[in-house]
Automatic annotation (TrEMBL):
This is NAD(P)/FAD-dependent oxidoreductase. PANTHER family: OS12G0638800 PROTEIN (PTHR42887:SF2). The lineage of its organism: Bacteria, Pseudomonadati, Pseudomonadota, Gammaproteobacteria, Lysobacterales. Residues 6-391 form the RsdA/BaiN/AoA(So)-like Rossmann fold-like domain. Keywords: FAD, Flavoprotein. It comes from Luteimonas padinae.
Amino acid sequence: MTISCDVLVIGAGAAGLMCAMTAGQRGRRVRVVERANKPGKKILMSGGGRCNFTNTGTTPANFISANPHFCKSALARYTPADLIDLVDRHGIAWHEKELGQLFCDDSSKQIVRMLLDECADAGVHVDTGCDVHGVAREGEGFVVETARGRVAAASLVVASGGLSIPSLGGSGLGYALAKQFGHHVLPTRAGLVPLVLTGSHAERLDGLSGVALEVEATARGPSFRNAMLVTHRGLSGPAILQASSYWEPGQALSIDLLPGTDALDWLRAQRAARPASELRTVLAERMPRRFAQRLCEHWLGDRPLRQFDEPMLARAAAALSAWPVVASGTEGYRTAEVTLGGVDTDGLSSTTMMSRLVPGLFFIGEVVDVTGWLGGYNFQWAWASGRAAGQVA
């Protein structure tokens, strides 16, 4: 038996559920199939269980894509304010944490419940634990073989996410479907992911796992000022996660350990005021003591400030403002929050997310080559792209 519907959405994440409820509200008969055992798994774990559901400062500049203009239309037509209105209508209390990041006061479960309630009100049917085994073009529509049987749909929306955190349902299905229908898929890699250190770099930081400090990290792209966390395998924390999306193997990573400070001027001032003080003692007032001590042992020299002549002070300042750390790789998709790359936007309409090659086929959310910064931007892309497709699918 074949089940018929107007719109079939593959993936019950943020983008898929937003698309489904939007299409359902237009009177379309909508079904959603999700391979995981529950919808919105990535929503549930985000923000430490409180879901950083948007960022009030969202602009196209907060996204990485081969075509930086592609995201503009959808983002302009469904803004953080629109999402906040929906959240408020459902009585979900929220707060701004930092840098425009909005979180639920209580639980990310409220966001999933909001989406499912909206879908239910719009008559959307959601199937979980339902793998997709194959997709074929039939006439002007699609026939999809699923674990629950065959589904025929006029429109097919691929919202299956990327490769990040496979334990939450991430897979390469969306990329395979894109290629099946003639779309180009740009190379993918882990984004917003901890960096791994090996060799002498790892040895020098051994035993400092858990130490955190404010830094400004840069890798090829913009600089990110936030916390850096030393882990047992390397470096993490918001500043490192942000920079990781721009970092590539073999590339230098610049970390300013005294952000907002001219390191050389500061060191000169400290030397003049406290010549008998050890450098590590002075640095411990600006960063964790154990980290300052390790810096001096391996990078800066461990002696009183008066013993630093001008060239030595300049070298120390250079190391503090551009700490020479070379990462050997990333933690990979297992812990990555997003997948960079994906379905080439050249093959999609920026207004509707519909394929330029196959009418009625849509790609939305993380599967598309649009990746946001850390801090709610990827959710805003999910809402905006899902809304754009749902208005026409």
